[in-house]
């Protein structure tokens, strides 16, 4: 049932997504059936390079805030939950960042507001990536997820200058702190410039630190705008669990926005993060998941998703199906078929079905 609905939405998506960028005629023949590219709006405080290739346009150093759109092609045989990629960038076989279109701040917000208002969903999916992620990877992951979900609103990503290196964890922790103000200010301006469009907010791993702080700070200065958000989605949050339980979680609940947190006991990245910090992470499960009254916690431990088990938010069909019901139908946990309730002495959480 879930797959059927998702497939129907994917078909509708082919006719509703705004087209952006172009693909070389030398690369693709007119007889091949390609999906329309996904156009994603972006803001980034990465350094800008002189490279002509879209994949190398933004570096890993800190820079000035810049804006634009990027185009990502989805191959005809794309499988839901799979990020098909290769160094040969064959758009017939792989997900490829095909184009980047920089623009001024004024042009960006004008186009974003107009596009979101004209979209079928009349909504924006705002996304912040995690540690060890390049601009190219963030754009491809968000585009793949949007395509798989059949999301008919407008995707927007903020790409902060992750070092994009396995050994860059400490550097990334410092840099996302540096980007925090830029992220908060950008999100606040986006909310103001796109009224009355609705919002959905998604962050992965370390990106949850920036998203949760931005939302909490803006809820004090822009409470009406924050309440336009229909869902806050925390995927594998790399946040100190005790700080989340005491401070972050309750503050998010007070915004009045529905909050869903995905966690797993099979997340090796967050298991390592716990060892590095000497304290458990909110997105890692040991025994019972972290439960905060008012936040719906989803245990994704039952699903198999690679050796690392950290990127299940866009790699698992079950998680994508669950996100589908949140984003496309606005259902809370007790109405979603993909979940089963688990009651404990600390409260109720939800377990993803295999």
What does this structure look like?
It is a single chain. The protein is an alpha/beta fold and 354 residues long. The protein has one domain: Rossmann fold (3-Layer(aba) Sandwich). 36% of the residues lie in helices and 23% in strands. It has helices at residues 2-16, 105-118, 135-149, 169-193, 207-221, 223-226, 241-254, 268-277, 312-315, 317-329, and strands spanning 38-48, 58-73, 96-103, 123-128, 154-159, 198-204, 229-235, 259-263, 295-299, 339-344, 347-352. An 11-stranded mixed β-sheet has the order 3-2-1-5-4-6-7-8-9-11-10. Strand 7, helix 7 (241-254) and strand 8 (259-263) form a beta-alpha-beta unit. Helix 4 runs parallel beside helix 5 (207-221). The longest helix is centred in the middle third of the chain and has 25 residues, at 169-193. The radius of gyration is 19 Å and the shape is globular. The protein starts with a helix and ends with a strand. The model is unreliable at 1-31 (pLDDT under 50).
